[in-house]
Specification:
By secondary structure, this protein is of the alpha/beta class. It has 2 domains: 17-114, Transcription Elongation Factor S-II, Chain A (Up-down Bundle); 126-397, 3-Layer(aba) Sandwich (Rossmann fold), CATH 3.40.50.10880. 45% of the residues lie in helices and 10% in strands. The protein contains 17 helices and 7 strands. The protein has helices spanning 17-36, 41-52, 70-77, 90-104, 107-110, 116-124, 127-142, 147-160, 182-187, 194-203, 220-234, 257-269, 273-287, 310-316, 326-333, 345-348, 372-381; strands at 189-192, 210-214, 240-246, 291-296, 321-325, 356-361, 392-397. Strands 1-7-6-5-2-3-4 form a 7-stranded mixed beta sheet. The longest helix has 20 residues, at 17-36. It is globular and about 60 Å long. The two termini are 15 Å apart.
Length: 409
Amino acid sequence: MTTKYPQPIFSTEPGSWAQSTVIDRWPEIVNRVIKENEFPLQVLDQLIRLRDGIPEGPIRQLKDLGAPDIKYWESYITPRAGKNWLDIPWFFAEHYFYRRILEAVNYFKLGLDPFGYQKKQGLIKTRKEIQAYASVLMNWMKDKGQGQGHIRQAIYFSLWGNQADLSLWPAGSSGTLKHLTQQSFKDNLLADDTNRIIKLLFKNTPPVRRVDIMLDNAGFELVCDLGLADTLLNNHLADDVLLHVKAHPTYVSDVISDDITQTVDFLKGCEEQDIKDLGKRLEKHIQEKKIRTKANFFWNSPLPMWEIPLDLREDLSGADFLISKGDANYRRLLGDRQWDFTYPFHQAVDYLPVPLAALRTSKSELAVGLDLDQIMEVYNKDPNWMVDGKWGVVHFAPGKSREVNKAHT
């Protein structure tokens, strides 16, 4: 039975996180882009026009007509052209906002990542945490008999590394990295299907050969995700890890292909031996094509996951296991819609052809797979639980079959 999808989330509700994002956070993100780059006056003028047009300005077609994604965006924008920033679905508005930044800085001609400074700082400012994590990974390399425990901890590191979100907390701010102990990994989990992931990885017949990861943020989170890939490979739980990255910069810190290279180079260049060794292992995995990277404009689109193009759907169906990282990917999986918080996660993503794990810290007013008592308990502890990044989920869905599901194409 095909799932009936709820209505999209809009930013029209006063006091909502979506509305404060549009009205307050986005202009501040533009200001940071201006401050952290040395743009010519023409680019500065375009950025200022973008900033000052939020939220009352009209949604318009893009002007960088030679860009490789322009035809996609023409179709996305046409039904919403002329509306203001609050009167369109929030998921569309966010992707359109970041795409307008790229238009303003002429990204597809000049190739300058407007968020590059923040991404670099995201590594530099978390070097202490990277050292601690690299040491953990090195200890795992020496202790081969605890594979299940290592994978479990690698999943938790990958989950909570998502707290280092540069669109919410600029690098070095006090808002990041709240859960870096084994006990705190578990204390703030609202759902934990890690045992089902362990069963899939260790007991699946036929065995898992290829794991795909839909990446989220650069910086410390990417280090944790690469560490998860390293752990999977070192424990012979995957022959191949395919990293799905954005085709261009978006959401400030979302990973593009260049970020993988720059992160590995950063790790290799550190003086701390455990960090250097991690960088060398990752470089070897990449050279041996055990870790591969693939970009697709779909990951930059405002489309829900069930509208994935057929070629990418067929590509994903070649994986034995798919891992979705972060809040934005979680929102894409659920179409950023007004789901009942108690709706089962596996039913919401029943369109997927392969098993899926979603590792997500809550940074938007969207959730599924919870129960009412749990919701009341966490609300009483933390009224901002949905958006402050302190609470997380590890969801699992078994997938429909190994065949490509064409029901939603």
